[in-house]
Amino acid sequence: MKKKKLVIFFLALIGVYIIYNLTYKETTNYLAIGDELAKGHTPFDTYSESYTDYLYNYLLSQDEKMTINKEFISEDLRIKDLLENIKNPSVYQEKNLPQAIKNANIITISIGSEELFAKLRSNNWKTSNERLYEFIDEMIKELEILIDEIQKIKKTEIYVIGYYNPLVYNEENETKLKSLFNYIDIKLKDLEKTKNINYVEIASEFSSKTYYLPNKEHAFPSLEGYNYIANEIIKKIESN
Fold first, then answer.
1. 171 within 8 A of 47, measured Cβ to Cβ
2. Stretch 70-82: mean pLDDT, rounded?
3. How far apart are CA 92 and CA 202, in angstroms?
4. What are phi and psi of 62, to 5 degrees?
5. Strands, E, within 16-168: which ranges?
6. Mean pLDDT, to the nearest integer, of 176-201?
7. pLDDT confidence band for 13 (50 / 70 / 90)
8. Concatenated DSSP letters for 91-109?
9. In the prediction, which pLDDT does 95 show?
10. What one-character-per-residue DSSP string does 121-171 give?
11. Cα 121 to Cα 107: distance, rounded to the nearest angstrom
12. Under DSSP, is residue 23 helix (H, G, I), strand (E, B) or coil?
């Protein structure tokens, strides 16, 4: 009798285990990393929905277990800050980037635009164009190191959002600016090939559609612009 009860117990246990494995679905996570662009800075110096929000809504429609981590979004965030967090996570306590990377199934990165915008809005680049290219080289190199550090922690899908021109074209700057953003595009495409990431180019579309950047005083995207960025990421996700 005891043996019979034991058999029934184990059969029930096996049944529960099978049902659990058939119905259980592990939570997946989207890690959004970035500065003003990821936060949703609008052309009117407010904050609203960003490409991160539009993308998360899409991911959630594909996977109801999807979560989002926006702890590593800050208007003054720099690549240097992220690298420091990876090297010394204990200093940052609850904002532990290595742990967030381990939990991530997809990562988007948009960082460096604020520093680039500041350089472009200064008059220095007009007289010393070479220094601006040196700055770009340093920024892309830092980004490459960041990607290396992320991939050491976990091999996951990484989407790097490109940069766009925040200035109004005129006779003086148009040729220089177009050459500059073409150079950035080439550098990021090289990074895409060598590091096996996904580069999301947005400069060309942003320069041709003024309603994506309706206010050059605060040259951040409109909701249509943020939605465009999200859709470009989604295209790459679906093609993968």
1. no
2. 93
3. 32
4. -90, -25
5. 28-34, 66-73, 106-110, 157-161
6. 96
7. very low
8. GGTT--HHHHHHH-SEEEE
9. 81
10. HSSHHHH-HHHHHHHHHHHHHHHHHHHHHHHHH---EEEEE-----SPP-T
11. 30
12. helix
